[in-house]
Amino acid sequence: IMSYLEPQQAASIIGGLPGAMQAEVARRIARMDRITPEVLREVERVLERKRSTVMGQDFTLAGGIDAIVDIINNADRGTERNIMEHLEENDPELAEEIKRKLFVFEDIIRMDDRSLQRVLREVEMKELSLALKGATEELRGKFFRNMSKRASEMLKEDMDYMGPVRVKDVEEAQQKVVNVVRALEDVGEIIISRGGEEELVV
User: Fold this and answer.
1) Could you give the number of structural domains in the chain?
2) Domain boundaries, position 30
3) 124-168 pLDDT tens trace
4) Residue 39 CB neighbours (<10 A)
């Protein structure tokens, strides 16, 4: 049922479940792919929906990695941490797949400047120049604005001298930056804005 709810609704429900059950529900949603019309009809009866929405279909998409990522991104940090800790212990492969999608490199555009500046202190310029090779101009600009003029000019020069690079190398460099972001969030040094959260006023 939760795989058909809006992410914010599903996140609220999961957040109210006992710890172990949170992880089990998350695991089942992530492992879902397609369900038969009969199962969906039963769900619809529970939700008092019309059965006509599944008539003529052999299978209906439901759940999956993207679905649980959307839900976790709308959950509070405690719920996210609990789910991920349980999954890392019981299904490390799934945990890693979810972790890679929870906060992607492009999401840095939504970070506040102070947090990004903190991240930059932990990232090697070599990795950053490679990561930014695959970034949009808007995202590059955000990084440059949060660096000194000299540092940003050196970074631009490094990117120019680098020439063509493999997409795989760019993605690996971007993931390293994301890992820094999540590590700093884990220790409370930065705050990552999540879907559905109100902005903080300080």
Assistant:
1) 3
2) 2-54
3) 999 999 999 989 999 999 999 999 999 999 999 999 998 889 998
4) 13
